[in-house]
């Protein structure tokens, strides 16, 4: 997966370097630059510990949730634009639905029975490189333009867990924020503010003089393993003394489907030091697929002054 990320980023940055100001200054003047604003409808999925398998690109389409976003884009050169965006969306995961209870590689996750939802607010800045250039003004832009993009982003997240049947006094059906519970016995809670590397591609279509529509898919490589609140090992019952909610989401065996009761296959699976998430310190990802309507802000044309 590291190779995919490294090669993709290097490819996009390499293409962007081709579109340097020196190479295009004579063909694309500042008078041809323009801005556009976009409104997006997105679909979000996630890759992490609460997915059908532990491999990258393992997702459950039934967990797809809707999001939305706004953006502003500045066209700098025939191929190169800069885009700043704000977006909101939700990701979800559920072992009971994602993991096969009879699968040799998923029986444990089905028995673990973790579930979460996480509302993400993201701010991003990316470079967009068009594979078809336009040396003219916005009125003569191509009808179809495939493009790639890469950049940086920051996001706020706060995973929550759903309370099921329990004997701890928690209200069934309630969602409880998990980060501050330190469900794996962490010394300090993981940060709700994180960074990511967004990259991907899409295709843009010219509707008319001022409107474009685009279809885009983008991956977010995060630097945390806790957007699903699952990332390490069980802390053990003795270490979870903060609250009943911490005990329920961190170690309570009554929350699990507990195949161990029927087959003895997973005895003591919540004991201290037992694996709770993927082995190998893997980080979580989320993916955003969106349709965007862009409105081009008609640039002012400055006529030269004659004396």
- Strand proportion, as a percent range, falls in 35-45%
**C-alpha Rg (nearest Å):** 24 Å
- What is the overall pLDDT average? 86
User: Please, how many helices?
Assistant: 6
Q: Between the first and last Cα atoms, what is the distance in angstroms?
A: 63 Å
| Fraction of residues in helix | 10-25%
Q: Please state the structural category.
A: mainly beta
Instruction: Tally the beta strands.
Output: 10
Low-confidence stretches: 16-25
- Going across the biggest sheet, name each strand in turn: 1-2-3-4-5-8-9-10
The general outline is elongated
The major beta sheet can be summarized as: 8 strands, antiparallel, barrel
Query: What letter string, H or E per element, gives the SSE order?
Result: HHEEEHHEEEEEEHHE
Topology of this structure?
Blueprint: H1 2-18, H2 21-24, E1 34-47, E2 65-75, E3 80-94, H3 95-98, H4 107-112, E4 115-130, E5 144-156, E6 160-162, E7 175-177, E8 193-206, E9 211-222, H5 244-250, H6 260-263, E10 285-297
Provide structural commentary:
The chain contains six helices and ten strands. The chain is mostly beta strands. The strands form two sheets. An eight-stranded antiparallel β-barrel has the order 1-2-3-4-5-8-9-10. A two-stranded antiparallel sheet has the order 6-7.
């Amino acid at each position: 997966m590291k190779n995919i990320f490294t090669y993709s980023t290097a490819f996009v940055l390499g293409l962007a370097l081709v579109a340097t100001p020196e190479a295009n200054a004579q063909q694309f003047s500042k008078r041809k630059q323009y801005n556009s604003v976009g409104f997006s409808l997105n679909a979000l999925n996630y890759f992490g510990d609460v997915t059908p398998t532990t491999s990258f690109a393992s997702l459950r389409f039934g967990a797809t949730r809707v999001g939305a976003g706004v953006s502003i884009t500045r066209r700098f050169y025939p191929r190169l634009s800069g885009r700043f965006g704000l977006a909101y969306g939700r990701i979800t995961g559920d072992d009971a639905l994602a993991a096969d209870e009879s699968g040799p590689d998923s029986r444990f996750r089905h028995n673990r029975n973790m579930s979460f939802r996480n509302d993400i607010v993201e701010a991003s800045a990316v470079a967009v490189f068009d594979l078809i250039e336009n040396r003219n003004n916005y009125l003569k832009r191509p009808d179809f333009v495939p493009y790639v993009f890469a950049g940086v982003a920051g996001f706020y997240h706060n995973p929550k867990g759903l309370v099921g049947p329990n004997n701890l006094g928690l209200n069934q059906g309630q969602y409880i924020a998990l980060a501050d519970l330190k469900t794996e016995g962490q010394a300090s809670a993981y940060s709700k503010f994180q960074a990511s590397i967004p990259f991907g591609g899409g295709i843009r279509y010219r509707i008319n003089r001022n409107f474009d529509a685009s279809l885009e898919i983008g991956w977010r490589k995060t630097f945390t393993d806790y957007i699903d609140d699952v990332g390490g090992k069980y802390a053990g019952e003795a270490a979870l003394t903060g609250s009943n909610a911490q005990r329920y989401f961190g170690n309570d065996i009554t929350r699990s489907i507990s195949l161990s009761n029927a087959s003895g296959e997973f005895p003591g699976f919540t004991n201290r030091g037992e694996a709770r998430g993927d082995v190998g310190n893997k980080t979580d990802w989320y993916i955003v697929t969106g349709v965007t309507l862009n409105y081009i802000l008609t640039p002012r044309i400055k006529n030269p002054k004659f004396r």
